[in-house]
Amino acid sequence: MGSRILTMQRQAAELGRIRTGYSRPNPDPKKRPIPVKSETFVFTSHRRNYVAAAAELWGGEVEQWTPQNQSIAQFRVISQAQQIEAILPAGDPLSQSYEMWSGGGCARRCDGETEKLSRKPCLCLAQFGDEWHLRSAREVCRPTSRINVMLADMPDLGVWRLESKSYYAADAMAGGLDIVLQATGGESLMPVRMWIEQRSAVRNGKTKNFPVVMVVPSLPKLRHALSGPLSTAAALDPGVLVERPAIEAPRPDYLDEARRCRTADDVLAVWQRARAAGHGSDELRDDLKAIADDIAKGIDPRSGEVGDQDEGGPDDEGVYDAEVVGESEAEPPAAYVSTVWPEAARPGGGGR
Q1: Inter-helix orientation angle 264-276/282-296, to 10°
Q2: Nearest to 197, CA basis, from 76, 332, 342, 38
Q3: 3-class DSSP state for residue 28?
Q4: HSE-up of residue 272 (Cα within 13 Å, Cβ side)
Q5: Closest Cα partner for 350 from 269, 274, 267?
Q6: What's the DSSP call for residue 119?
Q7: For position 320, what pLDDT does the model report?
Q8: Mean pLDDT of the 59-83 span
Q9: Which of 194, 208, 210, 292 makes an SS bond possible with 264, Cβ 3.0 to 4.6 Å?
Q10: Average pLDDT value for residue range 204-209
């Protein structure tokens, strides 16, 4: 096995990004493009074939697009999908921090206590106090969440990055993923459903509407998400986790059993067993009654012949084992007092 650089981060190739908004041209060419909140997912990539595959799966038209403050053109599709199925890779796929960006790139990246680039305590807190998060996004850092997912029906092996700058989305995603990671230890893939949910909040007497990306395990039951690592097959097809109904045991051949009986009581016992198993149909009852009557009259139910039953003949003392029942309706034995047979069948009726 080859060696690795221990201090280098290992990650899958990023094939593209999943966004919840886009921009449209400003009527005033001197002003910046106008941002638009999307109700459906937007897929962007440097490779046109990836975006074209997304359009085929989730609708929309492929177009060339250049992100703000960049010069290299990409491709994007504003899909028709408000919900998509994805797979979380093993490990912790979520990265969160407070960030401030400028034309020169990332100016601040903070975990809420320490600003990582300057290695100083939170600069926003020091400058604006405890209520710093209520100030304009141009003045302070914004909560930024990035989550990497795999799209099983898209080409090539890699991840798609979804990025959100919503405080509420950061809280919802972190809470749900932490529960799953606690259960699986981050040791397996996890199928998830992702959808855009419109939320609102009242701040300073004003109502603000914003989209939140929900990410929840896509499994038949909650127990599957909390019962430990999943197999790759289960992550790709969660349907295999559904409990399959038990295979029904083969149904006994009650008629064959009855024709092998030596007494009418034995046939009646076959009927009782069939009824207890849920197989006691009227048709079976009538057939078994006919066989019992034949045996009582000395008729072999297998051949229909009279007086030719070896097992029904007399013993050494000339005594017959079979119980002889008259032509009238016979009462069942005491052990089966609840059973009532239909009218007696004609002789030979059991030979079927």
Answers
A1: 170
A2: 38
A3: coil
A4: 14
A5: 267
A6: T
A7: 44
A8: 88
A9: 292
A10: 77
